[in-house]
Design a protein that fits this description.
It is built from 7 helices and 5 strands. The protein is α/β, with parallel strands linked by helices. A 5-stranded parallel beta sheet has the order 2-1-3-4-5. Helix 3 crosses helix 4. The protein starts with 8 loop residues before the first strand and ends in a 17-residue tail after the last strand.
Length: 183
């Protein structure tokens, strides 16, 4: 990096996502208001984001550390969609890579977990097991009340990284209340 180079962006996809999800957005992320070019990197994790939250979190954290070592950048701005927002918030809260995250922009980000009709009901565990088997662990673990989500969220309470949340009431998977990070 050069001294005048802007902070690079790392895009983080959501569940059943990949690097290609950001193809149309990357050209806009590369430019800055003062006409400088910003580098944009992407991470791909957890079998398209379907593996267990903890495994994906560790994988994203490792990618950021490797990116820091390979490029020499001191920090990165993360632009994250859906589960990528939850994962970015969790990475920013961890000692190993948290210092590498300067800002998080959540695009329909799942910062608090997603409520389903069965969330909080006695049958929730049974429904989550079915979802886990059919769609992958990340789907069930992102549902509000899951032990895995509770564990991930417990680590985010001390996160001091600024967050910009961009959300819409028309999102069918991540409702507005889940798209805003805990204070």
């Amino acid at each position: 990096p050069t001294p005048s180079e802007p902070t690079p962006v790392v895009v983080v996809h959501g569940t059943v996502g990949g690097r290609g999800n950001f193809n149309r957005l990357v050209p806009f992320l590369r430019t800055t208001f003062d006409a400088r070019t910003r580098r944009v990197f992407s991470v791909s994790y957890g079998d398209a984001g379907t593996t267990a939250l903890k495994e994906s979190l560790e994988e994203i954290e490792e990618h950021l550390v490797e990116l820091h070592e390979a490029t020499g950048f001191d920090s990165f701005d993360l632009v994250a969609h859906s589960q990528g927002g939850l994962q970015s918030l969790a990475v920013a809260s961890r000692p190993r890579a948290g210092h590498l995250v300067r800002h998080i922009v959540g695009l329909g980000a799942d910062f608090r977990g997603v409520r389903m009709p069965w969330s909080g009901r006695p049958q929730a565990e049974m429904f989550n097991r079915v979802v886990d088997r059919l769609a992958g662990p990340a789907f069930a673990q992102q549902i509000a009340g899951s032990p895995e989500l509770t564990e991930v969220l417990s680590q985010t309470g001390t996160c001091m990284v600024p967050i910009t949340a961009i959300a819409t009431k028309y999102d069918r998977m991540v409702p507005l209340e889940a798209a805003f990070a805990p204070a």
